[in-house]
What we know:
Layout: E1 2-9, E2 12-19, H1 31-49, E3 55-59, E4 62-66, H2 72-89, E5 96-102
Parallel strand pairs: 1-5
Antiparallel strand pairs: 1-2, 2-4, 3-4
Amino acid sequence: MIQAVLTERQGKIQSITVSGHSGSADKGEDLICAAVSAISFGICNALYELGSDASCVVADNRIEITVGTSDERTQTILQTMVVQLQTVMEGNETFLTIRKTEV
């Protein structure tokens, strides 16, 4: 299962960590993993290209996005990621979960 964990402070996203594999199909044929990977890497690229100071760390089966200085543009990009992940999750709750925590 893929797990996305969002950490928020006062309604603003501070970090998003995506980890795991969906297990919905064989390796190389898993459309849910492909969708989540494309969303995650696309958001990291957008943050970088648009000059956000958010950091993206990619490790084995894990992408961690951490916000430095939170500005409106960065929050909009991260909220876009949340909406995209929620869209993938619809009808696929067995393979992807999203959890929000407040700090």
